[in-house]
Design a protein that fits this description.
107 residues; mainly beta; 4-stranded antiparallel sheet; elongated
Length: 107
């Protein structure tokens, strides 16, 4: 993931939610976590939170925060790991897909 927090915000949060398609089975659970910080040229910037799996609901939930001090906070290649659970032999065999939306906003 690449993320840039505008200088006017100074800090920001990355939230996520999923948009299921009509065949999505509600027993399937999507989760995400941040497994690293990626790269940045900002010396006083930092990333916090998001290192434990967080369930991705259909409404926004915070994944992690980016803090900047008097600088544009720009990160590239932030590793995000996804996990799918709830799979069972009782769930019909078919193709399931969902869109995960990540949003950057003010704290």
């Amino acid at each position: 993931m690449n993320a840039t927090v505008p200088l006017l915000l100074a800090s920001g949060k990355i939230t996520m939610h999923y948009e299921p398609n009509s065949t999505w089975n509600t027993n399937l659970i999507l989760q995400a976590r941040r497994t690293g910080t990626g790269t940045t040229t900002c010396v006083l910037c930092s990333i916090s939170g998001g290192t434990s799996y967080t369930t991705i609901p259909s409404t926004d939930v915070e994944l992690f925060q980016i803090q900047a001090v008097a600088s544009l906070a720009s990160y590239s290649n932030i590793p995000i790991q996804l996990q799918l659970s709830g799979i069972s032999v009782t769930i019909p065999a078919t193709s399931y897909n969902s869109r995960i939306v990540f949003t950057i906003s003010a704290l």
